[in-house]
Amino acid sequence: MDLENQDYLVKPRLKKLSGEDLKGSEESCEELISRKKMKVKRKWEVFPGKNTFFCNGRLVMGRQAGIFYVTIFLVVGTSTLFFAVDCPYLATEITPAIPVVAGVLFIFVLSNLLKTSLSDPGIIPRASLAEAEYIEREIEQPGVGSAYRPPPRTKEIQVKGQPMKLKYCFTCKIFRPPRASHCSICDNCVERFDHHCPWVGNCVGKRNYRYFYLFLVSLSFHCVFIFTCSLTHLVLRSKEINPEKSQFLEAIRDTPASVIVCVICFLSIWSIIGLAGFHTYLTSNNLTTNEDIKGSFSNKRNSSNFNPYR
Q1: pTM
Q2: How many Cβ atoms sit within 10 Å of the Cβ of residue 272?
Q3: Residue 249: what pLDDT?
Q4: Confidence bin at 51 (pLDDT 50/70/90)
């Protein structure tokens, strides 16, 4: 067959494909794609826990976040009063380094607070239907009705020669890894669960514990620093009023905002420093708050339940 006849046979086919049938097929494909996109849901949209998600699932918070906003208000509000009232006077009378140091501490405190509150603490995914059925078949007790709920089931493993039991979670349908626990507030199993902190509005676990600890330590320094500076401001103002005799009450009347900063810091500093010290102890012994409260491990190395993670 020559080339001319071959072209003659091909051209009508190309005409048919480029006509109305092609347009119709393109429209039907677009409809199918749009339907599939509408049906597809991301994992965070069908998440079975009680967490709240932001920014298309990139940020996660616990269920009860009301006290978290109180924490934000106290940190930001107290620091704002200090920067507005005390810093201008102290920068002029003592050194301009004071507002710089306070600013660095404030940014460090706020960033670690937000990282703790808005990051995944270490949520362990729940078992799929197939996985749950497989586990249930393995541990199913014969002759027991479906309405009967057996006692907590466990598996025993060895961690550095220390026997440890993995507890079965009836909600997540999994055997929890060592040091994991189920948070009743967020309704999730969390890896290396420390505790659920209402002040940060999230669980504290494996993935955000470092930020929580840095938040406590930096907040301790920040509170001590602005308390000392605000008190210094009041003392210096009282001496300015009467150089021969300190007029502390007059200084309080002149700068009531400094008094508010001092009172808030004084009332909160003891609990913050105490909590930072407690978590320093836990960190040095590689313990979690949950393990320390329950007394899961003994400090003695030769004990039957010594801490294998130290």
Answers
A1: 0.80
A2: 19
A3: 77
A4: confident
Active site residues: 197
Q: What distance in Å separates the CA atoms of residue 68 and residue 178, rounded to the nearest whole number?
A: 29
Look up residue 2 and give its DSSP letter: -
Cβ 189 vs Cβ 181: under 8 Å: yes
Residue 17 has pLDDT above 50, yes or no: no
What is the CB neighbour count within 10 angstroms for residue 177?
Answer: 15
CA atoms within 13 A on the CB side of 93: 14
Token duo for residue 186 = 């967020």
Q: Tell me the backbone φ, ψ of residue 161, rounded to 5 degrees.
A: 80, -5
Is the model's pLDDT at 36 over the cut of 70?
A: no
How many C-beta neighbours within 10 Å does residue 175 have?
Answer: 18
What DSSP line would sit under 12-70, residue for residue? HHHHHHTSHHHHHHHHHHHHHHHHHHHH---GGGG--SS-EEETTTTEEE-S--HHHHH
Asked if residue 179 lies in contact with residue 245, where contact means CB atoms within 8 angstroms, the answer is no
Position 156: which residue type? Answer: E
What sign results for the dihedral spanned by CA atoms 167, 168, 172, 178? positive
Q: How many residues does the chain have?
A: 310
CB atoms closer than 10 angstroms to residue 238: 20
**C-alpha to C-alpha distance for 159 and 24, rounded to whole angstroms:** 64
Q: Is 114 exposed, middle or buried, given 0-12, 13-18 or 19+ CB atoms closer than 10 A?
A: middle
How far is Cα 202 from Cα 196, in angstroms, rounded to an integer?
Answer: 6
Residues 298, 304, 308, 310, CA torsion sign = positive
Q: What is the pLDDT of residues 59-81, one digit of tens each?
A: 898 877 889 999 999 999 999 99
